[in-house]
Design brief:
Structural class: alpha+beta
CATH architecture of the largest domain: Orthogonal Bundle
CATH topology of the largest domain: Hypothetical protein af1432
CATH class of the largest domain: Mainly Alpha
Mean pLDDT: 89
Number of domains: 3
Number of helices: 17
Largest sheet: 5 strands, antiparallel
Helix content: 40-55%
Order of helices and strands: EEEHEEHHHHHHHHHHHHHEEEEEHHH
């Protein structure tokens, strides 16, 4: 028997089955455990969570005078009840925000998501099951952030060190899948399924030896053969964890396939690939090539889109075009040359005109001197300034470029030295 009770009634000896709220509201990566440590009890009571589910068949029951707000005979029933409560709060969670507002929330979310995904990979390497409840909650909160403001979390997730890549890549692909699904006009349920699939798509890399995964040089043929097995290994891990979501299994197994049939592991092509698999292929590659890796620095976002557009037969063209629209012709963080002879960094998109984003000036091309950043909406009425071309940030060596567009002190400096 499962019971939902107030945190005030939680006591040692109870078996915690789940938390009735966002995973960000409590300090535990795992949601199911025997509460036998007084410090954990204090952490629960000090958290933002106000109710928890307990399993009285595996631990202590509530006191006779305690308040029980709901009961369930099975874990599935408890999950349905929790989902109903969360659905009622969904509209409150996804009210639109400005990009500066969402950047601050997204930064906190990314820090927590990094820890949760790192824990998932560690558990997988140790042979422990994936905590489906935690991973789904992570994906839901990422989807909420992207729904509130599409550009904030996606832009921040791109800025990561080489050491963070394996874990933050999963978070970034989750966010990119949500944004792409929304751009394609998919139903909200399918958009969130796509995000969950993106979060789990690379779990098979837990079976790849770290010395291969983090190798700074070129892989041997044998090493690459091991890498090529990670989609199938991940698919097997998801099934073993009891994850039956068709979207998650499909994207995990097929995110390295190509529409011309030259991908792996099954060499599928054309209509044999589902829409979500095609989405996964685009999102996976974009984050991979824009991120700092052990063996190379990430490419500029705008340059990455240009190169991806030239890879004929790699991506579904309709999906790729929608992906570009979801990010912008000049994605946030891109360095551009303006018609007034200034360099600027893109800080936000104008959905109505992808060629005229909001930018911040950083350098005068006439004098070669740094500028006090000035925010310019290139789509504003009367604005005559235009973008002439994209610029390679590596050529200009502006160390605080990510800090300028995001407004977050120190952002990007660690990754610049990775």
């Amino acid at each position: 028997m499962l019971k939902r009770i107030r945190v005030e009634d939680v006591r040692l000896g109870m078996y915690i089955h789940g938390f009735a709220g966002s995973w960000l509201d409590h300090p535990f990566w795992r949601s199911r455990f025997l509460l036998d440590d007084p410090r954990d009890l204090e952490r629960i009571r000090a958290s933002a969570v106000r109710e928890v589910w307990i399993d009285v068949s595996q631990g202590a029951d509530v006191a006779p005078d305690a308040s029980v707000t709901a009961t369930a005979d099975t874990p599935e029933a408890a999950a349905e009840e929790t989902a109903r409560v969360l659905d009622e709060a969904l509209q409150r969670r996804v009210q639109p925000t400005t990009q500066p507002q969402e950047l601050q929330r997204a930064a906190r979310l990314l820090a927590s998501a990094h820890g949760a995904v790192k824990d998932m990979f560690h558990d997988a390497r140790m042979g422990r099951a994936i905590d489906r409840q935690v991973m789904r909650a992570v994906a839901e909160d990422i989807a909420d952030s992207v729904t509130r403001n599409a550009g904030a979390l996606i832009s921040l997730a791109r800025v990561k060190t080489a050491d963070e890549y394996t874990y933050m890549h999963s978070v970034a692909v989750c966010a990119l899948m949500v944004a792409l699904g929304r751009q394609l006009g998919l139903p909200d349920e399918l958009v969130r399924a796509a995000g969950f699939a993106g979060l789990l798509h690379d779990v098979g890399k837990a079976d790849v030896p770290l010395e291969i995964l983090n190798k700074p040089g070129k892989l041997t043929d044998d090493e690459f053969a091991i890498i090529r097995e990670h989609p199938r290994k991940g698919w097997q891990r998801l099934r073993a964890a009891g994850i039956t979501d068709e979207a998650a299994l499909d994207v995990c197994l097929h995110h390295h396939e190509r529409v011309d049939g030259t991908g792996y592991p099954e060499g599928l092509s054309g209509e044999a690939l589902t829409l979500l698999a095609r989405m996964g292929a685009v999102c996976d590659v974009y984050d991979a090539i824009t991120s700092n890796r052990p063996y190379k620095a990430g490419w500029d976002p705008a340059e990455s889109l240009r190169r991806m557009a030239s890879w004929k037969g790699h991506f579904d063209e309709r999906v790729f075009q929608a992906f570009v629209r979801s990010l912008g012709i000049y994605p946030t963080g891109s360095l551009v040359r303006l018609s007034n002879q200034r360099l600027a960094v893109v800080v936000e998109q104008n959905p109505g005109n992808l060629l005229k984003p909001v930018v911040k000036t950083v350098l005068s091309l006439r004098s070669g001197e740094r500028l006090v950043p000035e925010r310019i909406d290139l789509a504003a009425p009367g604005c005559k300034v235009t973008i002439e071309q994209r610029e390679d940030p590596a050529q200009w060596r502006i160390p605080d470029l990510d800090e300028i567009w995001s407004g977050i002190p120190g952002l990007g400096r660690a990754s610049a030295h990775a």
